[in-house]
Amino acid sequence: MSHLDSVSSPKTPDFSALKSWIPPERLITDPGEVSVYECDGLPLHKKSPIAVVLCKSEEEVVQTVKWCDREGLPFVPRGAGTGLSGGATPITAGVIIDLNRMNRIKHIDAENRFAIVEPGVINNHLSDATRPQGLEYAPDPSSQRACTIGGNVAENSGGPHCLKYGVTTDHVLGLRVVLPDGQIVQMGGPEIDQPGYDLTGLFVGTEGTFGIVTEVTVNLIPPPPSVRTYLAIFDSLGLACRMVSQITRSGILPAALEIMDQNTIRAVEASVFRAGYPEDAAAVLLIETHGIDDSLADEEARIIEFAQECHAIEFRTANDEKERMDLWKGRKGAFGAMGRVNTDLYVLDGVVPRTQLESVLNRVGEIAEKHQVTVSNVFHAGDGNLHPNISYDGRDPEESHRVLEAGKEILQLCVDSGGTISGEHGIGLEKSEFLPMVFSDEHIDTMIELRLAVDPQERSNPQKIFPDNRVSKDGGRQKLNKVPQ
Amino acid sequence: MNLKTSHSSNAQDPQIDERFQRPEPSTPSEHERWCYGDDVEVSEPENEEELIDIIENSAGKGQTLIPTGLGHHAYLGPPPEGKILLVSTSRMNSIVQYEPEDFTIGVQAGVSLRHFIQELATNDQELALDLDPQRDGTIGGLVAANWHGPRRHQHGLLRSLIIGLSGVRANGVRFKSGGMVVKNVAGYDLGKLLVGSLGTLGVITQINFKLRQRSEVVSMGLGFFKDPEDAFAFAQEFAYNSVEPAILEVFNPEAVAGFKKECSSSHSKDWPSEWGVVWKLEGNESSVETQEREIEALKKNRSASASGFESLETEDLSAVSRYLTQFSEPDDPFRQDLALLRFSLPARNTRQLCRDVGRIQKDSKLLSEGQLFSPLSGMSVIRLRGDRPALKAGLTSYRELAKEASAQGKVLFVGKDLRREQTYSLRADPNRALAEKIQKVFDPKQCLHRSRL
Amino acid sequence: MAIPKSEEKAFKERFEEYTQTLDCVHCGLCIPDCPTQGITGRESDSPRGRIYLMRGYAEESIPFTPESLKHLDQCIVCRNCETVCPSGIQMGEMMETFRHEMNRTLPHKGWKHHFMKLMLNHVVPSRAKIAFLLDLLYYYDRFKLRKILVGVGSKFSKKLKKMDRLFPPIPKPSERRLATSASIPQGLYPSTQGKARMKVGLFLGCITSELFVETHRSTIRMLNRSGCDVYVPDSQTCCGALHRHGGFIDEAHRLYEGNVSAFEESGVDVIIVNAAGCGAALKEPPSSLPDGLGRPVRDICEFLEEIGIPEPDQKISRKVAYDQPCHLVHGQKVPASAVLSLLEQVPGLEIVPLRNSERCCGSGGIYNLLHPEMAEPILDEKVEDILDSGADTIVTGNPGCWMQIRSGLLDKDIEVLHPVDLLDQAYGA
């Protein structure tokens, strides 16, 4: 029997106990101020929390979680609030436990190549801190200037360079987690051969439904001996995709393969991030290789061959770090540049097999036309992770509806092509209704049961990932309750 | 400088060990009976529906269900008590979907290792794991046992190579994670949970992997040192330059005997029984050449302390590779006098571990059949031989060492007599309670052999 | 507290910059660069949060509470977010317009507001009044009244002591008066490099004109050395920056118009400003005056880098770091290289990097007086960065920053100067 009934009632929680742990400057209850926490990087879904607690230590997290348990309140962990699937949105009201003040890098072990950090450490800051010791933290989501390691762990974030180096879960060695009942669990560690189950591997990507991470042990890697960056320009998106398929087929594993289509290029060139991409190009492909220089030279010869075979109209090579930054500038600014096109931006995240890129993108274009929406494609072509972005005016309900319909069709297309509905942004709120596209009822039941085993009262980030009311084989026993809003 | 374009792994015809063959359908093999006793039934469903039927029908019969492939790793962990039903995936052995151009493959759990390797070889591809085609066994078994070999440092473990996994829980309900694409965050990563779970959660029925191109060029070398400290010093140098070895291990003199046994060349007979370093480079021609040049410089630095360096020819290269791959497995799982231990700790501490092992060995009645220490991945494996009391005492000492050194690790093999009293992990699982909660989700009626892990 | 019912619709309509808030895609990339969010960790103290509040108020989807409004007040308007925002939001303009609307709409207002209004609208625009006030302060200082009052007062109020630290010793009245063109021969400070290649105007500012007169003198000397005649109009007035930041936009416009008149008949080719805050305000004229001051406005370092300075002949043995004033790097988009390339020409000078040099020091015009609880921790971080740099000299081209940083280094052996003061020292004659 869960305590969700008490969540739906308007009873005001008793903050006095919490106040003995949390100083006033880190407890937010003002109705105006809590509104800024009603969504994360996905403004589509909004709900104000009852309170926001900025925790500075694990002990404060434990006390807050226990308090939530006693008060019957759900809680939502939040890092920088830059997520794109509504993972940090307090959709059932409740308490936001904000980790951005827990931002210490506790320990860097350069010889053994790992670091221990608090969850609020900003992704970029970690690499900045380890670089003087000749090491870096590999996963580089596009929001790395602002997003936190804790958030990366919750969503299993990727980034352009995860093609070669792997995603977050490949670089997390251990975690300290506060479970929804307030218990602290230490899992994993710098030693690879841990006893029992790979709980660390399970927890990464659970989107805050299994509790709150209070410490992360991460793997660090030395920077590559050599880096080469190129930009291939095409007069057809299909040809750009074909070149990606060619590179994949050849066995070359670049560090990054990113494509931007014409709509994106135009948005970028019209913004402060203009990078000198030709506006009449149909697509640009950014290629980066990492490794031993001689080997890269060999790969370069083959890459140039592929570019020729795919009729690239131009091929640029970065000759120094500045030129490299210039080539990347447009890609890094793409998301923000698209924000200028219209008042709202719907960022989609789907994956298809690399060999399907060309045909899928043609279909995406058709879907866009059918629903009369403008799609700008920027994506991690190297692992088939698409981001078809739709600019629209969120104040127009009719247009908003068409945008959502187009998004749904695109995701179904990804699944039908052998792919999936999320590559790095997570399911969160945004895609929970689409989970049945890739999982059967039984599959979803298994995951829900697992979630309920760890969080029987459904306190930890409720209503994320799973659509409501999945009925299990046992007939109604395992139901996630929908909280009336 | 010796550049080898190898892949002569199919050179020798794999020999069939009758003891691992099931004499008739649904009858346990000799090895399975050795491990589990005589009260053993075997079911070999042909598909998932049959599998679910078998699972559901066995409920309430008081049998312990053990998901199995061909039982090659049945020796892992303490054996179960009482009646046993081996639920074998050996007939669920088709390749479901192979996309060579996308470098992905999905196989049923019962696909044999040989079949798997051969299929991938047709496109010059491989799974980035040390796989020995001479050994038989199923892919499902590999995953359930979390198999890994010396290339783990460069390529990662199975957890990084699996892009999708599905199976059936002990209550007959299916589970799934991932798919056929290399990037996927939809749903929970149950694949991670199942890797190495030794059949305590359910039956894995299908696994999807991401693949790699087989390296154009492979090269291996050995360096011999009288003093293990010198061997480590040499190995440590590899970490501080742009050499990216696929394998880097420090070995003890007994391992050399093992090398020699595998190698057929006359040249190898001259190898001294000393400590040493073995390395393997893989890649395209220019990258291997560049790395070899760097290694030449390293060799020059250390020539004073080294007894000698060897570059391996094709046949020896395959042989030594095979030895290194098989090192973590018993040559004969029917042995009672063998123990295999694997330690894992931060890479820098490997040197000290080696000293500690030496210290324990001095006082122990156990003989070393070889020791491998990896200063890059922090994993080390030691092979020990002795009679039962010596093995017992030795295992106790090594468990204590693991605790003192804050190392983790596994007992990869002990003989049947000792198996009941030896836990699979060297150290206790601090998260037992949470693990049990999770296990109960997969096995609510507790029919699986939970205490194996 | 709420917006009076009668004003609600008008408020929304008048909130002109509302559509600009729609440029924000809520990505959050601005957050790590915001100094106030760095201190409190609250979303409401970040640019994204503030824009969200403004949009929410305008759309009436967020309750209008004093607590949430407080966080909007706490924006320093350092505009660091403008530099890093991928969508190109104009935070400065948005915040100014919003505060203007708040001033007009809300019935409030505490003593702080009235005091600020008094100072800004009645004292600051008049250089005569400022001079008078500073004369008083000079005597207060000279006759140890300051020492006594602060000594006693700090026992009761730590705040008093801290505020006092901000103000440097007041120079003597006679030293403080810079002769404007009304009172010097030919109205010009003539070029010292033979025939002048151009005639430039010097903007004096309000407080700067009196407290930082030496910097004006160095500025004039550097301009003269670089071949410029300098004209200093007498009738010029305050730039209006503080008024804009405080939301008194009408007054700010009036002042701008005053400066347009002052420089109209001056015949100068370029107007030089040595205070970054003033420079930003003058470079961004109100929409009703699209031609601005009628001629280009340049920061002194920006200008000297453009036209080139003569080779210095004096060696200066110092270890110097450059702290970038927000309104120069973010407001005027003048990169650090403009200043550094000048300093590099001075023999003997060792230039050391300063971590987070583009990050605010907490001065923010009079922000440090209005919000000391935020300005102080921000200053502490700046001081830490300065100490780590190893510099013995800090240069910064804004009087507010100068005062703020200096107040954090009083017990250290580090001198704070305007870059043009340091350059001036590199010339013998």
Explain this structure to me?
The complex is a heterotrimer of chains A (485), B (453) and C (429). By secondary structure, chain A is an alpha+beta fold. Chain A is 33% helix and 19% strand. Chain A has 15 helices and 18 strands. Chain A has helices at residues 4-8, 16-19, 31-34, 58-71, 123-130, 149-155, 162-165, 199-203, 237-250, 262-269, 293-309, 321-339, 357-371, 397-416, 441-454; strands at residues 27-28, 51-54, 75-78, 95-98, 105-109, 114-117, 172-178, 184-188, 212-219, 226-234, 256-261, 283-291, 314-317, 344-347, 350-351, 374-380, 385-386, 388-392. Chain A has a seven-stranded antiparallel β-sheet with strand order 13-10-12-11-16-18-14, with helices on both faces. In chain A, a hairpin with a 4-residue loop joins strand 5 and strand 6. Chain B is an alpha+beta fold and 453 residues long. In chain B, the strands form four sheets. Chain B has an eight-stranded antiparallel β-sheet. The radius of gyration of chain B is 22 Å and the shape is globular. In chain C, helix 17 links the parallel strand 4 and strand 5. Chains A and B meet through strand 8, helix 8, helix 9, helix 11 and helix 15 of A and strand 8, helix 7, strand 10, helix 10 and strand 15 of B.
